[in-house]
């Protein structure tokens, strides 16, 4: 699965890991993240992320 990077802080969303702190299970592709999901480090919206 593709990884996506936050251009503001460099956080990488890895679908294999998910984002358990925000209730996103491992194996969740970036495209399936909830609409309100934001970067866990800086709060940037997912529309700002770029494919890595």
Keywords:
single chain, 52 residues, little secondary structure, 3 strands, globular
Q: Identify the quaternary structure here.
A: single chain
* Beta-strand residue fraction: 5-15%
Q: Approximately how much helix is present in the residues?
A: under 10%
Q: Measured on Cα atoms, how large is the radius of gyration?
A: 10 Å
Our count of helices gives 0
Walk across the major sheet and give the strand order: 2-1-3
Order of helices and strands: EEE
Could you say which overall geometry the principal axes of the C-alpha atoms support? globular
N- to C-terminal separation?
Answer: 11 Å
Number of strands: 3
Largest sheet: 3 strands, antiparallel
Mean pLDDT: 97
Overall structural class, as computed from helix and strand content, comes to little secondary structure
Low-pLDDT runs: none
Give the gist of this structure.
Helices cover 0% and strands 12% of the residues. It has no helices and three strands. Strands 2-1-3 form a three-stranded antiparallel beta sheet, with no helix packed on it.
Walk me through the structure.
With 52 residues, the protein is mostly loops. It is built from no helices and three strands. It has strands at residues 4-5, 12-13, 50-51. Strands 2-1-3 form a three-stranded antiparallel beta sheet, with no helix packed on it. Strand 1 (4-5) and strand 2 (12-13) form a beta hairpin. The protein is globular and about 25 Å long. The model has no long low-confidence stretch (mean pLDDT 97).
């Amino acid at each position: 699965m593709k990884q996506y990077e936050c251009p503001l802080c460099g956080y990488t969303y890895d679908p294999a890991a998910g984002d358990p702190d925000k209730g996103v299970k491992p194996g969740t592709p970036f495209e399936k993240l909830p609409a309100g999901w934001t970067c866990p480090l800086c709060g940037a919206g997912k529309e700002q992320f770029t494919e890595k």
